[in-house]
Design a protein that fits this description.
The protein has 811 residues and is mainly beta. 14% of the residues lie in helices and 40% in strands. The protein contains 8 helices and 47 strands. The strands form 13 sheets. It has a 5-stranded mixed β-sheet. It has a 5-stranded mixed β-sheet with strand order 26-47-46-28-44. Strands 35-41-42-39-40 form a 5-stranded mixed β-sheet, with no helix packed on it. Strand 46 and strand 47 form a beta hairpin. The longest helix is centred in the N-terminal third of the chain and has 53 residues. The radius of gyration is 34 Å and the shape is globular. The N terminus is likely disordered.
């Protein structure tokens, strides 16, 4: 009996130990799974954050004075450059490229616009040769060229030229396009999904329509109809053994047939359901039984700013996440589902109406004015709570009639919506009306039918570096290209090259090619519209040629532009606009001539010289050798092997350098001293000398002797035959909008006509710390209704717009 008791006790102890071991093992497995899940979630989060930190996104918005123009008018614009996350003005790229493109994407006009602290302005004088039509105004930076061109700024512009016949444009495809977008990305057998759809015409304009879904037996399974702008959505559960076709009937009676997207046998389905006023419910389903208890991850970010990552285990092939709306940022958030292996398998956009908006108020001293009368506009900028805000604004005042209607584009709508969505957004201002259930549904349909993707998850999660071939132009325009050996046709690797902009300001730049022969010149402060000279040192590298790369992109735009027809416009308004433009240009066109920006550094690249010689203050000798020997003490002339050499004094050692200095003539490097010393010294106005070693990028010079002619244009100097002389446009020269003043009787009674249709344009309005600003201008001779459009942004990235109207009556 005792033996049995002992045996029973042993068995009991053994079972206890075994059970304890099993429990411990389960806990260890569970703990290791939990650790693995946490590590996976942390890895996804860290990869995303690291990518965003290393890939700064830029957004550009252009405020134009209006959106319809006559040829020979000036198109005025202001560029706002902000970061893609917080919309704060960005002071990294100092150049914005602006293009006016025809329907075939051929550039009509192009310009490089100087930016400072995230702001810049420019203009296009529309050539009289421009044909009537619809055009695209496009803007981007050099840095933005590293990313999807769908995120360049684009705006439709109309130009009318009555003096030329309307170009016969190719007939446009009059068909209709229907696209389906399963929520999350894919349809999966036996799982109900939400499917969004978009019905558009050939111009991308939404069309009202009704549709049905039929199976292979032609049975009607469900019906659907469009809502706002040809978009809509419906619920559908695809079966594993069937294929489906949709038949869409438009309002005009035409029908379009299209198959539903491919249905997958296995996969994830995501649906977002507003759970409460404060939360979003994200429902995840899967068709594969192997997903039992497997972990999934949900990453949420708003415009690239990480918000949270959530982890769940699948239970019965389902999982539900709850997201607090107050944890989302304003604007478009991207919600991405990752499977157990960390692969992105579903994605969804969600829009949260922005709470912050710059409130701009403009108070006029009247509502009706006679012609040539002063208008005083008091401006006030505040936040939503009426707290004063400093703001940088632009203001346009233009005539409204049957031809020129109110331009609906604005900076607030663009930054929050259009800038973050691919494709053409129809009437973006609609989505910023007062909130309501219908508006929320329409906005959600927009999110479902337009993709947001500034990166690829495969690249991001693999920690692959993005191909960033274009540098941010943080000092000025970068001129790039390739050097080639003309004898071997191979690339010119590690070749020093020189660029000169002939002028009295000594615009001289250096660059060295890389192993692939690519070179980049940083052209800080280059405004000229003229010739540049490229060359290598012919004494060392005499067999190389240059190929300049265009800084402008050649690509399709996302705008779909309709064919132009004069019959679309009121003939009387059309005639009046054209007459007014011609009269204005005849009498006052010269007032808007471009000019060099003021307060620009006119000093040479080397700064203050050690010695300056104004040659007119000395005896004018007939040879350069006499000039240098007689009174230019820090430069000596020597002759070696029957060749002349110049040497510059080293002021630190009080001895002349033994090696060659940098000799410049109007910024052109001189390598053949015999030829230079035969140059007529009477053409030289001054000589500046740097008496010491000078380092410029990758090069070092033993002193500098810079000879400057009277006009800086290399008069009668013969270039080296292998130097490349080309026309090249620098930063755009400024124009100032001409607004006449009628502040005395003589001016107000002048018979000089004033037919300004853009009555006033000011791209540089700044409100003070109290949120106040003031501008004044005078009415023109044209009676009618006028719109004042103010747009702008605060230093912390809050944008806003204000429209006000007034009337001008005849005296």
């Amino acid at each position: 009996m005792a033996q049995k008791v002992i045996f029973s006790s042993c068995v009991s102890n053994f079972l206890k130990v075994k059970l304890l071991l099993i429990i411990t093992l389960i806990l260890l497995i569970s703990g290791s799974k939990s650790i693995a899940q946490n590590q996976r979630a942390e890895s996804i989060q860290n990869s995303f954050i690291a990518y965003q930190q290393n890939n700064l996104q830029e957004k550009i918005y252009l405020h134009t004075d209006k959106d319809l123009f006559m040829v020979s008018e000036i198109l005025w614009f202001k560029a706002y450059l902000v970061d893609g996350f917080f919309h704060k003005p960005l002071n990294i790229s100092k150049v914005v490229y602006v293009e006016l493109l025809e329907k075939n994407n051929k550039a009509v006009l192009q310009a490089k616009i100087e930016m400072k602290d995230g702001f810049g302005n420019g203009s296009f004088q529309l050539p009289v040769s421009t044909l009537s039509g619809h055009y695209t105004l496009r803007a981007y930076t050099n840095w933005m060229k590293n990313y999807d061109q769908q995120f360049f700024f684009e705006k439709a512009i109309t130009i009318i030229n009555p003096s030329k016949p309307v170009a016969i444009e190719a007939a446009q495809n009059q068909g209709y396009e229907v696209n389906f977008f399963p929520e999350g990305g894919n349809l999966v057998h036996e799982i109900q999904s939400k499917i969004a759809f978009h019905v558009v015409d050939y111009l991308g304009k939404g069309q009202q329509a009704k549709g049905i879904i039929i199976n292979e037996k032609k049975d009607t399974l469900t019906t659907f109809s469009t809502e706002k702008f040809g978009m809509g959505s419906f619920q559908f559960k695809p079966q594993s053994t069937q294929t489906y076709t949709t038949i869409i009937r438009l309002e005009n009676g035409k029908t379009v047939e299209k198959e539903l997207p491919k249905t997958f046998e296995k996969g994830f389905v995501m649906q977002i359901i507003p759970a409460t006023q404060e939360q979003l419910k994200v429902s995840i389903k899967h068709s594969n039984d192997n997903q039992v208890n497997s972990p999934i991850y949900l990453l949420v970010h708003t415009k690239g700013v990480f918000k949270q990552i959530l982890t769940k285990n699948m239970q019965n092939n389902e999982a539900v996440f709850l997201i607090d709306k107050n944890k989302l940022g304003d604007g478009i958030s991207q919600i991405t589902l990752f499977n157990e292996e960390g692969e992105a398998v579903c994605e969804r956009l969600y829009f949260k109406y922005p709470e912050k908006q710059l409130q701009i108020d403009v108070k006029l001293d009247g509502k009706t004015y006679e012609s040539r009368k002063k208008i005083i506009a008091n401006i006030n900028s505040t936040d939503q709570k009426s707290k004063p805000k400093v703001a940088n604004l632009s203001m346009s005042v233009y005539q409204i009639d049957s031809l020129q209607t109110l331009d609906r584009s604005n900076i607030h709508n663009y930054l929050w919506l259009s800038a973050d969505l691919k494709g053409q957004i129809e009437a973006p201002e609609y989505y910023f009306k007062d909130n309501g259930i219908r508006l929320e549904q329409d906005t959600d349909n927009l999110m479902l039918t337009h993709g947001w993707r500034r990166f690829r998850w495969e690249t991001l999660l693999a920690d692959k570096k993005a191909d960033l071939g274009f540098l941010p132009e943080h000092t000025g325009h970068i001129l790039s290209g390739k050097i080639t050996n003309t004898k071997t046709n191979s690339v010119g690797a590690n070749i020093n090259s020189f660029l000169t902009v002939p002028s009295t300001q000594t615009k001289f730049y250096t660059a060295a090619s890389n192993k692939d022969g690519d070179f980049k010149f940083d052209l800080k402060g280059f405004y000229n519209e003229g010739e540049i000279i490229l060359q290598t040192n012919p004494a060392i590298d005499s067999n190389y040629s240059f190929k300049i790369s265009s800084p402008y992109i050649i690509s399709d735009t996302k705008n779909r532009l309709s064919n132009f027809s004069l019959s679309d416009y009121n003939l009387t308004a059309f005639t009046n606009h054209y007459r007014n433009t011609q009269i204005q240009n005849s009498y006052l066109g010269r007032k808007n001539k471009p000019f060099m920006p003021i307060n620009k550094d006119t000093m040479a690249f080397y700064g203050v010289p050690d010695f300056t010689y104004l040659l007119d203050n000395y005896v004018r000798f007939t040879t350069m050798e006499e000039v240098l020997r007689e009174y230019v003490q820090p430069v000596i002339v020597r002759k070696s092997n029957n060749k002349y050499k110049l040497h510059v004094l080293d002021k630190l050692k009080l001895a002349f350098f033994e090696t060659d200095p940098l000799i410049l003539l109007d910024g052109l490097p001189i390598f053949e001293m015999d030829k230079f010393l035969s140059y007529d010294p009477l053409k030289i106005r001054k000589l500046e000398v740097i008496s010491g070693k000078y380092y410029l990028r990758n090069m070092m010079f033993d002193g500098i002797a810079n000879f400057v002619t009277y006009k800086g244009q290399l008069p009668d100097f013969e270039l080296d035959p292998k130097a490349v002389l080309i026309d090249y446009e620098g930063l755009q020269l400024k124009r100032e909008f001409y607004s006449p003043k009628y502040d005395n009787p003589l001016q107000s009674t002048s018979r000089l006509p004033d037919f300004r249709q853009t009555m006033y344009w000011n791209p540089q309005i700044k409100t003070d710390t109290n949120g106040f600003g003031m501008v004044d201008f005078y009415t023109s001779d044209l009676p009618g209704k006028y719109a004042i459009v103010l747009q702008g942004i605060t230093p912390d990235g809050v944008a806003g717009v204000k429209v006000e109207y007034f009337e001008v009556q005849k005296k």
